[in-house]
Amino acid sequence: VSTQSTWAEQELESSGYDLVEMDVDVVENNGNVNDDEVIVTASVDSNAVDEILNEKGTTEEALNESKKKRNKWAKGLSITKDTLEIAGMGTKVGFTIAKTGTKLGFTIGRKCIRGPAHVMDAVLPYNPISLGLKAVDKAVGCAEHVTVGCMDISEKVTTKTITTSHQLLHKAGVKEGGLIKKIGELVGQTELTEALVLIIKVLYNGLEPSTNYSVSSLIAAAQTFAYLQRECRPTLTGPSVTEIDAYYVRRFMLFAGAAYGPVSLTIYGVVPLSSSTNADVIQKITGINAEDILVSNWNGTLYSPAYFLAVDHRTRSVVLTMRGTNNPHDVLTDLVCKQEPFTLPFEPDLHGFAHKGFLLAAQRLSKELWGPVKEALDKYEGYQLILCGHSLGAAVSAMITVFWVELVPNIHCYAYAEPCVMSLELSQRMGAYITGVCNEDDMVCRFSEATTLDLRNALNRLCDDIDLDVAVKRAMSQVEVGSNNSITHPSLNTVLNFLREQEMTEPKLYPAGHMLYIGNNAKLQAPMKLPQHHHLPTDAKMEPIPNCVIYDQSHLGELVLSNTMFVCHLPHVYMNVLGCKMAE
Which residues contact 189 (CB under 8 A, 6 or more apart)? Predict the structure, then answer.
């Protein structure tokens, strides 16, 4: 603004005319200061204006030229900032590889020297040859320390230089993303490039501090942490699910499972090889007719997983089912787990964060699918709208529900193996509209950028803190047996709580809605009716869900290390633990 106003004033006054009045306005463009337009309005004698325009061209042309220069500089500095960030990551990785290779080379060399020396010592102790080889071994050891020391110094100097330059650009207000956009434009895949860069940053931030520890040390720390979690596992006490609600939870899990199609479900052993098409699978598992499948798209892309829209006359529902992770694009959507500022559309005063990948997918699909969904609801008057899905499908279904709550009065979402989608307060606020299901140690229900950083910090502390390691070993040897023959571990609980309070404090995302937890550590109380209202078929079989409690999602803020954390997540496992029966 000051540049443009100064230019206008100088041009007017240099022509020998007095400036009567000047006004400067900034017109914002998409909230990006680099795209803002600066409009200078000056009041002078009309003849002066004519002369200036003749000499310099129109004010609009001058402003456009200035805008182009500013944008060019901004893009250049943005690319520089991105390049420095990549250089910082590359420096750490490069020096780590170089130091590891150097140490390995020196180790091999010293063993080649020590071997013959030991053999010579065994044949003839204190002989000149073995003494010479030992001297050479010591010299090589000194050379190793000097070499690695110099590399450490070089790494610190390089890292400091890059970090300082990056910080200066940041303080100057230079934005990130210029390099990503440039590469995306060159390869014609801007969105994919941005996703890959975000994922690389998350992985680097999660792993970088752990490169200071050996693999064996990290494995030992992970085993210790898993032991602490296993021995200190709490009992989750809560209301059980009514048999009516259990019916609906099972019913719509069939739709969520059917979305995976014939190939995946044949591998899982759910359907036989004879199931050749997606429509065949949907009919066999859910029992609906081919004409009840209204819309489908099986070509999942980035931020747009596959889906099908159907009518379930048994429950008088229009059912939109999102498929879970089933191809590389789906994996990328899962891993774009940056926390994005987010506000519930129907409650603007409630602020928090949402998983960026799921949010982008929901924003895209909620617009794309609203037309067909609205048409189906109009055609089948009185039917409710159900959204459901497993894994990625659960997350996107939950987020679409957030956008459609105000559009459809009778809407509910069933989210199986639901990932972490929103901040705790936002997730709890969606309890009236979403029912989430977590099977015991399922890691996806607990996975987010924050929980991975928490786990990293805890493992690093176990690697670093000798006193803590000693405390764990002592606690392991002092297991106490209570009066009712139950095993208690007060010392282990103290250690685990210490790690949680000191190292596991990142702000987290959680699965949304009322959460159903299925596990052997569930303690059932009297049943509680969930808030949704559905049409119940007259021939519906009423059976409870074993070991299933309604429990607050706040206990899902920590990754549980166990040998079932991956298996628990699979769709056919959810179908089994829920007791689903095909074409019920």
Answer: none
Percent of the chain topping pLDDT 90 = 43
- At residue 178, the pLDDT reads 54
Cα separations (Å) of 559 from 343, 443, 446, 454?
26, 6, 5, 9
* pLDDT 10s digits, 139-194: 888 888 888 788 878 877 877 776 776 677 666 665 665 555 554 454 445 555 56
Closest C-alpha among 430, 442, 318, 37 to residue 307: 318
Residue 385, H or E segment: strand 384-390
The SS3 assignment for 439 reads strand
Rounded Cα distance between 550 and 124, Å, is 77
Q: What is the DSSP letter of 425?
A: H
**pLDDT over 90 at 133, yes or no:** no
One-letter amino acid of 202:
V
Q: What is the pLDDT of residues 332-380, one digit of tens each?
A: 899 888 899 999 999 989 999 999 999 999 999 999 999 999 999 999 9
Residue 53 CB-half CA count within 13 A:
11
Counting beta carbons within 10 angstroms of the beta carbon of residue 115, is it exposed (0 to 12), middle (13 to 18) or buried (19 or more)? exposed
> In sequence order, what are the residues at sequence separation of 6 or more whose Cβ sits closer than 8 angstroms to the Cβ of residue 550?
238, 239, 240, 241, 514, 515, 516, 517, 528, 530
Give the contacts of 187 (CB within 8 A, at least 6 positions apart): 193
Neighbours of 543 (CB within 10 A): 12
Q: What's the helix, strand, coil split of the chain in %, to 5? A: 55, 15, 30
CB atoms within 10 A of CB 369: 19
Terminal Cα-to-Cα distance of the chain (whole angstroms) = 69
Least reliable range by pLDDT among 177-181, 264-268, 417-421: 177-181
The amino acid sitting at 217 is: S
Give 384's contacts (C-beta < 8 A, 6+ positions apart). 315, 316, 317, 318, 410, 411, 412, 533, 534, 535
Q: 160 near 87, Cβ under 8 Å?
A: no
Question: For residues 469 and 223, is the Cβ–Cβ distance under 8 A?
Answer: no
Q: DSSP character for 12?
A: H
* Closest to 386 in 3D by CA, of 336, 433, 445: 433
CA pair distance 547, 520, nearest whole angstrom: 6
Q: How far apart are CA 242 and CA 542, in angstroms?
A: 9
- Specify whether the CB–CB gap between 240 and 548 falls below 8 A: yes
Measured at the alpha carbon of residue 383, what is the angle toward residues 381 and 385, in degrees to the nearest 5? 125
Backbone angles phi, psi at 434, to 5 degrees: -130, 135
Q: What angle do CA 567, 572, 578 make, to 5 degrees?
A: 100
User: Which tens digit of pLDDT belongs to each residue from 34-58?
Assistant: 555 555 565 655 555 555 555 555 5
Containing 309, the helix (H) or strand (E) segment is strand 307-312
Give the separation between CA 332 and CA 435, rounded to whole angstroms.
Answer: 25
C-alpha span between 339 and 280 (Å, rounded): 39
